[in-house]
Design brief:
Strand content: 5-15%
Strand order of the largest sheet: 1-2-3-4
Order of helices and strands: HHHHHHEEEE
Structural class: alpha+beta
Mean pLDDT: 78
Low-confidence stretches: 25-29, 34-51, 54-58, 60-65
Number of helices: 6
Amino acid sequence: MTTATHLHTVINHWADLQQSLATSQADTWPPVMGIARLHDHLKTDEAATELRALERSPDQIGTTAAPLRIAILDTMTALDQQLVDVADQIASAVQRPPASRVRSASSGDDVGLQLATLILTDEADARRWSYTNPRLRTAPFAAAWLLARHDGAPGPFRKLTGVHHDQITAAAVWAAHQVDQALEMARRTQVLERLCPHCRGVLRIEGGDGSTPAVRCRGCGRTWTGQEAA
């Protein structure tokens, strides 16, 4: 996989992490799909009990694993810190400082007014990495900015060196791995009571990691998703 692919993983799946973070682990699971409403026989308390079992095993002694949402929050915090830090380092090396201000231009000084306008435009260039705006100092914004620098997108920047490219690549590989692990933690599976209408095999519903929930038969391999599960 390429550096761009790894960075796109962070950008494209950040909303999935946020959704996993905001979803209560006691929410009804499986989600409502089709297949003659297979979930009518699943009780909310049974689903909640099974999900809680994923957080804490009753036979564990002493320290136990953190609940899912805490683990995902920790992952997102680490991604914010690491990618923003790398963006800070790259920006300090390649981002050109804004042009120096000139004396105030008078109303008749067309050249001075044009120069002042260019300077203000350069300062406000949205392609610049921000060291102060908290809204922009997040993992997905940092990943997008690093991707643009890695791809050589135009802007007020010097050309990256091989060391800079290696630094971005290392951060991208690490970040994509963290996202993949978090989504795997968020993924839920559950065996359904109803058997496959084709082979009478065991049906299992999977989802919760940002992908479309799907019902799969462990016998014949048939798969139903969304409205297909009618």
